[in-house]
Amino acid sequence: MYLLNNLRRVWRELRGEPLHVLPNKTWSIAKPKLSKFGEEVAHRTGIGRVLGQRYRGAGVALMFHEIHDDVDAELRTGCDVAQLTRIIEAVLAEGREIVTIEEGLRRLADPESRPFALLTFDDAYRDNWTNALPVLEHFNAPLTLFAPTGMIDRSIYAWWLGLREVIKSFDNVEVPAMEKKFTTSDLASKAASMRQIAGWIGTSQSRADALEDVFVQSGVSVSEIVERVAMNAQELKRFSEHRLVTIGAHTQTHRFLSNLDDESVVRELSVNKAFLEDLLQVPVKYLAYPYGTETACGAREADIAENVGFTASFTTRPGHLFADHLNSPQLLPRIDIGYAPQSAAALASRLNGLHRAMTTNFGEPMATLA
């Protein structure tokens, strides 16, 4: 009876019916767990593919960041080689071919083309070369790496890297701007604190900037971390010469574009594009917006990206790629899939369309920001 009641609750969740019997606060806590339970049920029964069919597009763009040697040591902010391998195997098992962005856009315009997937990596971490590329070579799978100028020339304020280093290094962390102290004595509390602080920052550059005092007090140098984990100009150029690699733009400073005025956004995109083209001596046709959520970028940024000269630009709003996305190629969806830990059910739901269905309460299949 307990299982039956839970299944009924999952079905109501999948249909988009809120559980009004629960208080709002309790429901907000229970919903993520219930969604995970729904994914598990859908995966184990095979119904996930059926429920997600309407949300399954001709293509899917997948987003990764770091490919760690030890995901727990890095507070599960990326994934490892084994997970990357599992994801690629799952993509291929879904009947998708991994292609370049150029080929993917061509296939979107041709309804007779084979389903495809795009592999994208943000920020130009060195482990994308050392850890990810050998896996991609094994599968002959092309990738696009989106590189911010500041990561390459070491001028970036990579607050997320500094925050991770502080939490890794101390069992107690205070964030005065939040008026909060965190106990970070084990992996679970460290990972939870990382998520909570990042959630507090949201898309506020001023809150991200407020962490600088924490870094100074903790003796953490963000520039030294960037030097350790990110490709430099020479490395990026060598990496770009690999037959499987395409380099895309990721702004000059990796700031929240929605916090900037029009002129600053133009500069962020155009300076980054020019920097990469001068360094690599090839056209840079594709862009990934930093953060990429609805509140981090939108129609204004899309118009500027088109005027700067990008062929297509990617957000981080989850969803599959449909032919109609060619009508607004500066706001393409992309699924964050390179996080740990990740269950087989969670991976399947993102590839078969169920995740998009559940996050929209079975609403609009095609993700846009317009």
Structural overview:
Strands 1, 4, 5, 6, 9 and 12 form a six-stranded parallel beta sheet that branches. A two-stranded parallel ribbon has the order 2-3. Strands 7-8 form a two-stranded antiparallel sheet. 49% of the residues lie in helices and 12% in strands. It starts with a helix and ends in an 11-residue tail after the last helix. Helix 13 packs across helix 14 (299-308). It has 16 helices and twelve strands. The longest helix is centred in the first third of the chain and has 22 residues, at 24-45. The radius of gyration is 21 Å and the shape is globular. It is an alpha/beta fold. Strand 10 (286-288), helix 14 (299-308) and strand 11 form a beta-alpha-beta unit. The chain has three domains: 2-45; 51-154 and 230-359, Glycoside hydrolase/deacetylase (TIM Barrel); 159-224, no CATH class.
At a glance:
This is Chitooligosaccharide deacetylase. The protein folds into 3 domains: 44 residues; 234 residues, Glycoside hydrolase/deacetylase (TIM Barrel), CATH 3.20.20.370; 66 residues, no CATH class.
Helix and strand topology:
Blueprint: H1 2-14, H2 24-45, H3 47-52, E1 59-64, E2 67-68, E3 79-80, H4 81-93, E4 97-98, H5 101-108, E5 116-122, H6 127-139, E6 143-147, H7 149-153, H8 159-169, E7 172-175, E8 180-183, H9 187-201, H10 205-218, H11 222-229, H12 233-240, E9 245-249, H13 262-280, E10 286-288, H14 299-308, E11 312-314, E12 335-336, H15 344-352, H16 354-359
Parallel strand pairs: 1-5, 1-12, 2-3, 4-5, 5-6, 6-9, 10-11
Antiparallel strand pairs: 7-8
Helix pairs in contact: 1-2, 2-15, 4-6, 8-9, 8-10, 13-14
